[in-house]
């Protein structure tokens, strides 16, 4: 074990000629008898990710036909002296997490056909689940479950162009997580190919150590080839609401109260929030709040003493297509009455359930047309303890980010009891308090603004982390990125030694997911 820990990055034992190694490894790949395919011309997608900051060229891209191909690839890599293996979901990481420099990238999207819904119809659909391939996109799963069966997973991400295996390797959070926990809390079984090349089915009762390692495990222990995900009855419609606050404390108290009332049918079904700039800036300010083009944000409703940043609570309520709008207006009115938002700054719309869950798809299409989807995205995601969230607002939103970031600045509460401490996920300690916050700084830049802007954004992220550290704020990075052993150790805290033990057991040569830069390949 100690020897294993000493093999933490960076490695210093590369005396061998890299070209010779690549030639040997290429022959190894050619000898693989795959049902799928191997491609050595690795350009475009294989070398980059959504972040657009890191570029790493793999030796080959493998398109597996099934889990047996994944086994073949892992076994072949273990025969070489230096090959690593990265599962690539949809490459929506920010910092090269799904890349493998001169290694083998497994394109999980090539195994995206498995979606098998098992439905036991009843009033609650509580026994329904779907068996889904690790490379399936959540948006495809949504369409199949809702259109085919009137069912849907319970916990989502905001954007659904992500794979099942990719989000389960992190957590997967959105406005439903306060009630159902992250996506990792809604999986009952996995099929995994471990770093030793074994195909294992795991769950809470069968191979539990592997099951909990892999959930939130940053791809370190095995490759998820199938997941069993709980389903519920899909609602027809969503009443989608945004209300505006000038005071962070009031916004936070109301949001916390709403996520603490988690009884289905008696409270909102989705709770999120975001900070925005108190100005008419079209990208960062008032115009980002209304839900429809004909809704107008009336700035005269903002008190003159309001600060540089305002807050928007975003809520959704499931409803039936036949519910009368008068009755629904009444119910929503009653639920909103105790909240302390600015009375004239409330925006509402009813949309179908699919339209709501696919809302970011529309943003994606517009962003692709304007070029900002394909430009670099130096994003930063954090979990901040409730104890420190007011200080975070003061130091970060009201100060460092008072002019905005060119994209959404999400801030909303989550509940610790909905997360399973046995997984590899890491949350701020927060004195064990039930509530903690998700912060997502989702920067979008015009591509023509160039690398200098990306560097400025990265530097601003570092300034945020430094300021939080200097002020003693209790937080953890979500979708973490570190480059040194000490940083990873600090990140995992009490979970570090277990993480290392699990790695040594399930991936003893440290073949898997090298782009996370946690362990180095054992030669
Ligand atoms: P990749 O980026 O391809 O891979 C991520 C990591 O998982 C890599 O280490 C990879 O090796 C590993 N991996 C991938 N597939 C597997 C597998 N089958 N088995 C084992 N390991 C695997 N996150 C949220 O929680 N909530 C959100 O609302 C949200 N919105 C987002 C919106 C956008 C536009 C983007 C770009 C990201 C968003 N994310 C969100 C973050 C997202 O969940 C993660 O980046 C996720 O990893 C992306 O999934 P992917 O399929 O692209 O994974």
From TrEMBL:
Q: What is its EC number?
A: 1.5.99.12
Matching SUPFAM superfamilies, A to Z? FAD-binding/transporter-associated domain-like, FAD-linked oxidases, C-terminal domain
- List required co-factors: FAD
Q: Which BP terms from GO are recorded?
A: cytokinin metabolic process
Instruction: Extract one GO molecular function annotation from the record.
Output: cytokinin dehydrogenase activity
Domain (FAD-binding PCMH-type) spans 54-234
Name the enzyme group at the top EC level: oxidoreductase
Q: Which UniProt keywords apply?
A: FAD, Flavoprotein, Oxidoreductase
Domain of life here?
Eukaryota
The similarity comment for this entry is:
Belongs to the oxygen-dependent FAD-linked oxidoreductase family.
Do you know which PANTHER family this protein is assigned to?
CYTOKININ DEHYDROGENASE 7, GULONOLACTONE OXIDASE
Its recorded name reads cytokinin dehydrogenase
Q: Which organism is it from?
A: Protea cynaroides
């Amino acid at each position: 074990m100690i020897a294993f820990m000493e093999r933490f990055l960076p490695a210093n034992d590369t005396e061998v000629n890299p070209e010779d190694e690549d030639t040997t490894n290429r022959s190894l790949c050619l000898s693989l008898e795959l049902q799928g395919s191997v491609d050595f011309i690795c350009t475009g997608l294989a070398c980059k990710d959504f972040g657009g900051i890191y570029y790493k060229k793999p030796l080959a891209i493998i398109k597996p036909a099934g889990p047996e191909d994944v086994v073949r690839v892992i076994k072949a890599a273990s025969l070489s002296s230096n090959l690593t293996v990265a599962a690539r979901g949809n490459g929506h990481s920010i910092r090269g997490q799904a890349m493998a420099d001169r290694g083998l990238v497994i394109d999980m999207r090539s195994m995206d056909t498995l979606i098998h819904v098992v439905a036991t119809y009843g009033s609650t659909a509580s026994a329904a689940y779907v068996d889904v391939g690790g490379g399936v996109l959540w948006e495809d799963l949504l369409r199949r479950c809702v259109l085919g069966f009137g069912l849907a997973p319970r916990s989502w991400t905001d954007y659904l162009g992500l794979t099942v295996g990719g989000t389960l390797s992190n957590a997967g959070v959105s406005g439903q997580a306060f009630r159902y926990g992250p996506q990792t809390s809604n999986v009952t079984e996995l099929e995994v190919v471990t770093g030793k090349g074994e195909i294992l089915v795991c769950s809470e009762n069968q191979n539990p150590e592997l099951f909990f390692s892999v959930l939130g495990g940053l791809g370190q222990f095995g490759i998820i080839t199938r997941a069993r995900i709980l389903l519920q009855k899909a609602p027809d419609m969503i009443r989608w609401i945004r209300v505006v606050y000038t005071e962070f404390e009031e916004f936070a108290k109301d949001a916390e109260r709403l996520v603490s009332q988690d009884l289905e049918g008696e409270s909102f079904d989705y709770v999120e929030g975001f900070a925005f700039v108190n100005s008419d800036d079209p990208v960062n300010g008032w115009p980002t709040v209304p839900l429809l083009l004909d809704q107008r944000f009336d700035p005269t409703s903002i008190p003159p003493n309001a600060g540089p940043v305002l807050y928007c609570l975003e809520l959704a309520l499931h409803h039936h297509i036949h519910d009368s709008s008068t009755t629904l207006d009444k119910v929503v009115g009653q639920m909103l009455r105790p909240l302390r938002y600015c009375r004239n700054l409330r925006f509402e719309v009813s949309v179908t359930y699919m339209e709501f869950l696919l809302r970011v798809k529309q943003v994606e299409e517009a962003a692709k047309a304007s070029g900002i989807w394909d430009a670099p995205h130096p994003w930063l995601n954090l979990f901040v303890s409730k104890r420190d969230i007011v200080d975070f607002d003061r130091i970060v939103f009201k100060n460092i980010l008072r002019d905005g970031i060119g994209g959404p600045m999400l801030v909303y509460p989550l509940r610790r009891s909905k997360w399973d401490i046995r997984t590899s996920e890491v949350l701020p300690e927060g004195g064990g308090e039930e509530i903690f916050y998700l912060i997502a700084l989702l920067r979008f830049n015009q591509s023509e603004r160039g690398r200098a802007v990306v560097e400025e954004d990265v530097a601003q992220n570092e300034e945020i982390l430094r300021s939080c550290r200097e002020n003693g704020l209790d937080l953890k990075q979500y979708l973490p990125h570190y480059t040194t052993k000490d940083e990873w150790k600090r990140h995992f805290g009490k979970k570090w030694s277990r993480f290392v033990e699990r790695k040594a057991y399930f991936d003893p040569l440290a073949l898997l997911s090298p782009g996370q830069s946690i362990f180095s390949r054992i030669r």
